[in-house]
Design goal:
With 297 residues, the chain is α+β, with helices and mostly antiparallel strands. 25% of the residues lie in helices and 26% in strands.
Protein backbone atom coordinates (compact mmCIF):
# COMPACT_ATOMS: atom_id res chain seq x y z
CA UNK A 1 0.00 0.00 0.00
CA UNK A 2 1.43 3.37 -1.00
CA UNK A 3 1.31 6.02 1.70
CA UNK A 4 0.15 9.32 0.24
CA UNK A 5 2.31 12.39 0.71
CA UNK A 6 1.39 14.53 3.67
CA UNK A 7 -0.42 17.77 2.92
CA UNK A 8 0.07 19.08 6.43
CA UNK A 9 3.64 20.34 5.98
CA UNK A 10 2.53 23.36 4.01
CA UNK A 11 0.54 24.61 6.95
CA UNK A 12 3.36 24.34 9.50
CA UNK A 13 4.31 27.91 10.42
CA UNK A 14 7.86 29.11 9.88
CA UNK A 15 9.61 30.04 13.11
CA UNK A 16 11.97 32.99 13.42
CA UNK A 17 14.83 33.04 15.89
CA UNK A 18 14.05 35.03 19.00
CA UNK A 19 17.12 37.26 18.70
CA UNK A 20 19.46 38.64 16.07
CA UNK A 21 22.68 36.77 15.38
CA UNK A 22 25.52 39.17 16.12
CA UNK A 23 28.23 39.52 13.47
CA UNK A 24 31.72 38.16 14.15
CA UNK A 25 34.19 40.97 14.72
CA UNK A 26 37.96 41.09 14.61
CA UNK A 27 39.88 42.70 17.43
CA UNK A 28 40.90 46.30 16.66
CA UNK A 29 44.32 46.90 18.15
CA UNK A 30 46.52 49.20 16.04
CA UNK A 31 45.09 52.34 17.62
CA UNK A 32 46.39 50.99 20.95
CA UNK A 33 49.91 51.53 19.62
CA UNK A 34 49.44 55.31 19.24
CA UNK A 35 49.72 58.21 21.63
CA UNK A 36 46.82 60.67 21.77
CA UNK A 37 48.52 63.57 23.55
CA UNK A 38 47.47 66.20 20.98
CA UNK A 39 43.85 65.09 20.72
CA UNK A 40 42.65 67.59 23.31
CA UNK A 41 44.23 70.52 21.45
CA UNK A 42 42.60 69.51 18.17
CA UNK A 43 39.17 69.10 19.72
CA UNK A 44 39.37 72.57 21.25
CA UNK A 45 40.96 74.55 18.45
CA UNK A 46 40.46 73.08 14.99
CA UNK A 47 41.31 70.49 12.41
CA UNK A 48 45.12 70.42 12.81
CA UNK A 49 47.93 71.00 15.27
CA UNK A 50 51.54 71.90 14.54
CA UNK A 51 53.97 69.73 16.51
CA UNK A 52 57.35 71.33 17.27
CA UNK A 53 60.53 69.35 17.91
CA UNK A 54 63.71 70.96 19.25
CA UNK A 55 66.96 69.88 17.60
CA UNK A 56 69.84 68.50 19.68
CA UNK A 57 72.10 71.06 21.37
CA UNK A 58 75.79 70.50 20.44
CA UNK A 59 78.22 69.78 23.28
CA UNK A 60 81.70 71.32 23.14
CA UNK A 61 84.89 71.40 25.19
CA UNK A 62 85.22 73.86 28.06
CA UNK A 63 88.41 75.67 29.01
CA UNK A 64 89.08 77.94 31.99
CA UNK A 65 88.51 81.66 31.41
CA UNK A 66 87.04 80.98 27.98
CA UNK A 67 83.54 81.96 26.88
CA UNK A 68 81.23 79.12 25.94
CA UNK A 69 80.21 79.22 22.29
CA UNK A 70 76.48 79.81 22.27
CA UNK A 71 74.38 77.87 19.82
CA UNK A 72 71.17 79.00 18.16
CA UNK A 73 68.26 76.72 18.92
CA UNK A 74 66.58 75.21 15.89
CA UNK A 75 63.23 73.48 15.61
CA UNK A 76 61.34 71.38 13.11
CA UNK A 77 57.58 71.33 12.69
CA UNK A 78 55.17 68.57 11.74
CA UNK A 79 51.45 68.93 11.18
CA UNK A 80 48.87 66.50 12.51
CA UNK A 81 45.80 66.94 10.33
CA UNK A 82 42.32 65.53 10.77
CA UNK A 83 41.90 64.52 7.13
CA UNK A 84 39.82 61.34 7.46
CA UNK A 85 36.02 61.44 7.70
CA UNK A 86 33.74 58.41 7.61
CA UNK A 87 29.98 58.18 8.00
CA UNK A 88 26.99 55.89 7.70
CA UNK A 89 23.22 56.19 7.51
CA UNK A 90 20.30 53.80 7.29
CA UNK A 91 16.51 53.91 7.66
CA UNK A 92 14.45 51.71 9.97
CA UNK A 93 10.71 51.67 9.29
CA UNK A 94 8.30 51.98 12.22
CA UNK A 95 6.31 49.03 10.85
CA UNK A 96 9.42 46.86 11.01
CA UNK A 97 10.02 48.01 14.56
CA UNK A 98 6.43 47.14 15.53
CA UNK A 99 5.77 43.97 13.58
CA UNK A 100 9.10 42.15 13.51
CA UNK A 101 9.25 38.96 15.52
CA UNK A 102 12.94 39.47 16.24
CA UNK A 103 13.96 42.26 18.61
CA UNK A 104 17.36 43.90 18.56
CA UNK A 105 17.70 44.45 14.81
CA UNK A 106 18.15 48.21 15.13
CA UNK A 107 20.63 47.90 17.97
CA UNK A 108 22.73 45.30 16.13
CA UNK A 109 22.71 47.29 12.88
CA UNK A 110 23.91 50.46 14.65
CA UNK A 111 26.54 48.52 16.55
CA UNK A 112 27.78 46.88 13.36
CA UNK A 113 27.99 50.21 11.52
CA UNK A 114 29.96 51.80 14.38
CA UNK A 115 32.31 48.80 14.46
CA UNK A 116 32.92 49.05 10.71
CA UNK A 117 33.92 52.69 11.10
CA UNK A 118 36.38 51.83 13.87
CA UNK A 119 37.74 48.98 11.74
CA UNK A 120 38.51 51.44 8.94
CA UNK A 121 40.20 53.70 11.50
CA UNK A 122 42.34 50.80 12.73
CA UNK A 123 43.34 49.92 9.15
CA UNK A 124 44.22 53.56 8.53
CA UNK A 125 46.59 53.63 11.52
CA UNK A 126 48.14 50.33 10.38
CA UNK A 127 48.79 51.76 6.90
CA UNK A 128 50.28 54.95 8.40
CA UNK A 129 52.69 52.90 10.50
CA UNK A 130 53.64 50.71 7.54
CA UNK A 131 54.42 53.73 5.35
CA UNK A 132 56.11 55.69 8.14
CA UNK A 133 59.03 53.41 9.02
CA UNK A 134 62.36 55.20 8.67
CA UNK A 135 64.51 54.45 5.63
CA UNK A 136 67.31 56.75 6.85
CA UNK A 137 68.47 55.12 9.04
CA UNK A 138 67.15 52.01 7.35
CA UNK A 139 64.86 50.37 9.89
CA UNK A 140 63.53 47.76 7.45
CA UNK A 141 64.97 44.26 7.71
CA UNK A 142 65.46 42.08 4.60
CA UNK A 143 62.26 40.25 3.68
CA UNK A 144 61.64 36.94 5.46
CA UNK A 145 60.19 34.72 2.74
CA UNK A 146 59.64 31.50 4.72
CA UNK A 147 58.73 32.17 8.35
CA UNK A 148 58.17 28.97 10.31
CA UNK A 149 59.37 26.62 13.04
CA UNK A 150 61.09 24.00 10.83
CA UNK A 151 64.79 23.77 10.09
CA UNK A 152 65.83 26.25 7.45
CA UNK A 153 62.85 28.54 8.03
CA UNK A 154 63.11 32.17 9.07
CA UNK A 155 62.70 32.03 12.86
CA UNK A 156 59.74 34.22 13.94
CA UNK A 157 61.24 34.74 17.39
CA UNK A 158 64.61 35.87 16.02
CA UNK A 159 62.84 38.31 13.69
CA UNK A 160 61.22 40.02 16.67
CA UNK A 161 64.60 40.11 18.42
CA UNK A 162 66.12 41.87 15.39
CA UNK A 163 63.28 44.41 15.29
CA UNK A 164 63.78 45.08 18.99
CA UNK A 165 67.50 45.51 18.36
CA UNK A 166 66.79 48.25 15.79
CA UNK A 167 64.68 50.13 18.33
CA UNK A 168 67.43 49.75 20.93
CA UNK A 169 70.03 51.14 18.53
CA UNK A 170 67.80 54.17 17.95
CA UNK A 171 67.50 54.88 21.69
CA UNK A 172 63.78 54.10 21.74
CA UNK A 173 62.57 53.93 25.38
CA UNK A 174 62.10 50.40 26.64
CA UNK A 175 58.72 51.14 28.16
CA UNK A 176 55.65 50.30 26.05
CA UNK A 177 57.47 48.89 23.04
CA UNK A 178 55.13 46.80 20.91
CA UNK A 179 54.90 44.68 17.76
CA UNK A 180 51.88 43.75 15.63
CA UNK A 181 51.70 40.33 13.97
CA UNK A 182 49.00 38.45 11.99
CA UNK A 183 47.42 35.29 13.44
CA UNK A 184 49.57 32.92 11.39
CA UNK A 185 52.76 34.54 12.72
CA UNK A 186 51.52 34.20 16.29
CA UNK A 187 50.76 30.57 15.50
CA UNK A 188 54.32 29.94 14.36
CA UNK A 189 55.59 31.35 17.64
CA UNK A 190 53.26 29.10 19.62
CA UNK A 191 54.15 25.98 17.61
CA UNK A 192 57.83 26.20 18.49
CA UNK A 193 58.27 23.79 21.44
CA UNK A 194 61.38 25.62 22.59
CA UNK A 195 59.20 28.55 23.57
CA UNK A 196 55.70 27.26 24.19
CA UNK A 197 55.76 23.81 25.81
CA UNK A 198 57.53 24.29 29.11
CA UNK A 199 54.34 25.20 30.96
CA UNK A 200 55.84 27.89 33.17
CA UNK A 201 53.53 30.70 34.33
CA UNK A 202 55.51 33.11 32.15
CA UNK A 203 55.00 30.85 29.10
CA UNK A 204 51.31 30.52 29.73
CA UNK A 205 50.76 34.26 30.08
CA UNK A 206 52.98 35.03 27.10
CA UNK A 207 51.29 32.69 24.66
CA UNK A 208 47.80 32.30 26.03
CA UNK A 209 46.09 35.57 25.26
CA UNK A 210 45.07 37.56 22.23
CA UNK A 211 47.63 40.15 22.89
CA UNK A 212 50.25 37.51 22.22
CA UNK A 213 51.12 37.90 25.86
CA UNK A 214 51.20 40.04 28.94
CA UNK A 215 54.87 39.08 28.94
CA UNK A 216 57.05 40.30 26.07
CA UNK A 217 59.24 38.92 23.30
CA UNK A 218 62.61 40.67 23.50
CA UNK A 219 60.95 43.63 25.21
CA UNK A 220 58.14 43.86 22.65
CA UNK A 221 54.53 43.45 23.75
CA UNK A 222 53.15 41.44 20.84
CA UNK A 223 49.61 42.10 19.61
CA UNK A 224 47.78 39.81 17.19
CA UNK A 225 45.70 41.61 14.55
CA UNK A 226 43.88 40.85 11.32
CA UNK A 227 44.64 44.39 10.16
CA UNK A 228 48.38 43.84 9.69
CA UNK A 229 49.16 45.42 6.27
CA UNK A 230 49.64 42.80 3.56
CA UNK A 231 49.91 42.47 -0.19
CA UNK A 232 47.76 39.33 -0.08
CA UNK A 233 45.68 37.80 2.70
CA UNK A 234 47.04 34.31 1.94
CA UNK A 235 49.86 33.73 4.50
CA UNK A 236 51.92 31.60 2.11
CA UNK A 237 51.88 34.05 -0.77
CA UNK A 238 51.28 37.47 0.80
CA UNK A 239 53.91 39.66 2.38
CA UNK A 240 52.83 40.86 5.83
CA UNK A 241 54.38 43.94 7.43
CA UNK A 242 55.50 42.93 10.92
CA UNK A 243 55.86 46.33 12.57
CA UNK A 244 57.53 47.17 15.88
CA UNK A 245 57.64 50.52 17.63
CA UNK A 246 56.44 52.49 20.62
CA UNK A 247 53.54 54.90 21.24
CA UNK A 248 55.51 58.13 20.85
CA UNK A 249 56.40 57.20 17.25
CA UNK A 250 52.86 57.93 16.04
CA UNK A 251 50.18 60.28 17.29
CA UNK A 252 46.46 59.83 16.70
CA UNK A 253 43.45 62.06 17.26
CA UNK A 254 39.71 61.82 16.83
CA UNK A 255 38.14 65.23 16.39
CA UNK A 256 34.52 64.16 16.29
CA UNK A 257 32.51 61.05 16.94
CA UNK A 258 28.77 61.58 16.46
CA UNK A 259 25.77 59.26 16.40
CA UNK A 260 22.16 60.34 15.97
CA UNK A 261 18.69 58.83 15.61
CA UNK A 262 16.21 61.18 13.92
CA UNK A 263 12.63 60.93 12.70
CA UNK A 264 12.46 60.72 8.92
CA UNK A 265 10.44 63.76 7.70
CA UNK A 266 8.93 61.86 4.74
CA UNK A 267 8.35 58.38 6.17
CA UNK A 268 7.29 56.77 9.42
CA UNK A 269 10.58 55.57 10.77
CA UNK A 270 14.00 56.52 12.04
CA UNK A 271 17.15 57.67 10.28
CA UNK A 272 20.26 56.28 11.99
CA UNK A 273 23.37 58.37 11.33
CA UNK A 274 26.97 58.16 12.42
CA UNK A 275 30.14 60.10 11.68
CA UNK A 276 33.79 59.99 12.72
CA UNK A 277 36.67 62.34 11.87
CA UNK A 278 40.25 61.45 12.71
CA UNK A 279 43.89 61.64 11.67
CA UNK A 280 47.31 60.18 12.48
CA UNK A 281 50.91 61.27 12.01
CA UNK A 282 54.16 59.32 12.33
CA UNK A 283 56.28 61.85 14.21
CA UNK A 284 59.32 59.68 14.97
CA UNK A 285 59.99 57.36 11.99
CA UNK A 286 63.20 56.12 13.60
CA UNK A 287 61.03 54.77 16.44
CA UNK A 288 59.55 52.16 14.10
CA UNK A 289 60.99 49.03 12.49
CA UNK A 290 59.51 46.41 10.21
CA UNK A 291 60.04 43.35 8.08
CA UNK A 292 57.98 41.85 5.25
CA UNK A 293 57.19 38.28 6.21
CA UNK A 294 55.62 35.32 4.39
CA UNK A 295 54.69 32.03 6.05
CA UNK A 296 56.69 28.95 5.11
CA UNK A 297 54.79 26.42 3.02
Amino acid sequence: MVTPASTIASSIPELWAGEVQAALRKALRFVKGCNTKYEGEIKRQGASVRITTVADVPIGNYSRNTDISLQTLTTTDQNLVIDQAKGYGFFFDDLDATQTATPGILTEAASRAAYNMRDLMDQYVAAALDAGVSTSPDNILPAATAVGSDAGNDDPFKILVRLSQILEQNNVPEEERWAFVPPWYAGELKIDPRRSSFGTPENISQYGQGLLGIETVSGLRVWVSNNVPTTNSDPQTGQFSIIAGYPDAITFAEQMVAYAMKDNPYRFGKNMLGMNAYGAKVTRPYGLAKVLATQAS
